[in-house]
Design brief:
Largest sheet of chain A: 6 strands, parallel
Distance between the termini of chain A: 62 Å
CATH architecture of the largest domain in chain A: 3-Layer(aba) Sandwich
CATH topology of the largest domain in chain A: Rossmann fold
Number of helices of chain A: 8
Structural class of chain A: alpha/beta
Helix content of chain A: 40-55%
Strand content of chain A: 15-25%
CATH superfamily of the largest domain in chain A: NAD(P)-binding Rossmann-like Domain
Oligomer: homodimer
Radius of gyration of chain A: 20 Å
CATH class of the largest domain in chain A: Alpha Beta
Order of helices and strands of chain A: HEHHEEHEHEEEEHEHEEH
DNA sequence: AACTGTGAAGTTTTTCACAGCC
DNA sequence: GGCTGTGAAAAACTTCACAGTT
C-alpha cells in the first residue's frame, strides 16, 4: 500500500502568507495583541473566509470566539515560510538598479541580508556600495558555493539575464528574484519570481478608460 | 429589453498582457517577424492554449497555419492596454527608493514618464534628482489636477502611505503603484498594484527545504 | 503541414454557510 | 455573541482536443 502523502499546499496560498505576515507585523506595532480573520481581511482586501482557509492548511492557529494571537501567528507564519532565520542573498548587477537595491533597508528585518554584490564590468570592480565592495562575476560561483548562498537577486541588463541565471543555478542558487524585464528559463527545482514595475503600470492603464 | 453587455475580460488575463508584450518586443528586437502561441509560450512558461485563449478575447489576432505577426500583435496589445500613448506619472517620495525609481530608465519606452517628484521633508525640497527638482507635497494636488495626471508611484514610508494615497485619490489619481510594504485602502474605482521584493523572497523561501 | 480559435471537460480557487467552541 | 475551521457549492481558470483556415 502506497504511503498516503498529503497534497502540497497551493502555491497561491503560499504567495499570500507574506502579505499576512506583513499586515500582522503592522498590527503588532500598533500594539494589538489579537486579531480576527475579518480585521485582517478588511486591511488586505481579502475575504475573511479566504484567510481562515489559508491558515487552516497549517493547523489551528486561531481560537474560536477570540481570533488569532498576533505574536503567535507571526511566529508560526515565519516558521512556515522559513524566515525565522536570516538568508544570505547574492546581488548581481551593480548598476543603477543594483545600487538602489543594495541601499534598500527593508530586507534586514524580514529575513534577508545581502552578502555580496557582483558585477562584470571592470570599472565597477572594487567600487564601494554601502558596506560592500563590488566583486567580479569570476569570483561569483566560488563564493556562492563556499558560503552556501541559496538566493540571488538579478539586476543585470535583460540581454545578460539568462546567461547570469545559468551561472547562478550552476553555482548552487535555488531561488532567483529577477529584476530584469525578461523571462528566464531554469530547472524546475529553481524558484523564480519577477519584479517589473512597468508591467504593473501597464496592467493598470487597461482600466484607465472613461 | 436590457442591453446585452459583454462580460468583462478577466483581470488575470489583463495581467498577462504586459508579459506578452514584453516578450514580443524582445522577439521583434531579435529580428523575428512572426511567432506562434507555442514559441511565445515556451519563452514565458505559459501553455500555448492559454496564450491563444487570452488573445482571443480581443479578436482574431493570429493567422491559422502561420501564427501571429509580431509587429501587428504588439500594436494591438499596446492599444488594448492603452500604452500606445505616454502616461505622465507622479512620483511621491524622494528618499532612497524614490531617487532610485526616478533614475530607472525602463519607463520611457514602455509608455510612462515621470512628470514630477514630490516629498514632504523640507530638506529635500528643491533638490535636483535627475532632471527634476523635488517639489513640495503642498503643490501636489494642484499640479496633478492641472496636468491631468492619472497615475502615481508611492515611495514613502509605510506609516505615511495611506495618508498620501488619500491625498492622491482626492487630487484625481486613478492608479497607484505602491512601493511601501503596506496595503492601502482606496475607492473601488482606483487601481492599486504593489511592489514588494521581500514578499517575493519570502514566497520562495517556503520552497527552500531539502 | 502548421497553427489558430473555441466549445467542452477538467482542475483549481473562492465563497458559502454552519457546526462547534470559547 | 463572536469567531474559527471546514465540508459542500459555486465560480473562476486552465487544458483538452479538434474543426476550420491558410
Amino acid at each position: 500500500m502506497p504511503d498516503k502523502v498529503s497534497p502540497p499546499i497551493p502555491d497561491i496560498v503560499i504567495g499570500r502568507l507574506p502579505l499576512y505576515l506583513r499586515a500582522l507585523k503592522r498590527l503588532e506595532q500598533e500594539g494589538k495583541l489579537v486579531t480576527s480573520s475579518q480585521e485582517l481581511g478588511s486591511r488586505l482586501d481579502i475575504s475573511s473566509a479566504q484567510i481562515r482557509k489559508d491558515l487552516s492548511h497549517f493547523g489551528g492557529f486561531g481560537k474560536q470566539g477570540t481570533g488569532y494571537h498576533i505574536d503567535f501567528l507571526i511566529e508560526r507564519l515565519q516558521a512556515v515560510l522559513q524566515v525565522n532565520q536570516e538568508w544570505k542573498v547574492a546581488l548581481v548587477g551593480a548598476g543603477n538598479l543594483g545600487a538602489a537595491i543594495s541601499h534598500y533597508r527593508g530586507f534586514q528585518d524580514r529575513g534577508f541580508r545581502i552578502a555580496h554584490i557582483f558585477d562584470s564590468s571592470p570599472e565597477k570592480l572594487g567600487e564601494a556600495i554601502g558596506e560592500h565592495r563590488v566583486r567580479s562575476v569570476q569570483e561569483m560561483a566560488a563564493l556562492i558555493a563556499e558560503e552556501d548562498i541559496k538566493i540571488a537577486m538579478l539586476a543585470v541588463p535583460a540581454s545578460q539575464a539568462q546567461a547570469v541565471a545559468d551561472q547562478l543555478v550552476q553555482a548552487g542558487i535555488r531561488a532567483i528574484l529577477n529584476y530584469a524585464p525578461i523571462n528566464i528559463n531554469v530547472r524546475a527545482d529553481v524558484e523564480v519570481q519577477y519584479i517589473d514595475p512597468v508591467s504593473h503600470l501597464q496592467h493598470m492603464t487597461y482600466y484607465l478608460r472613461d
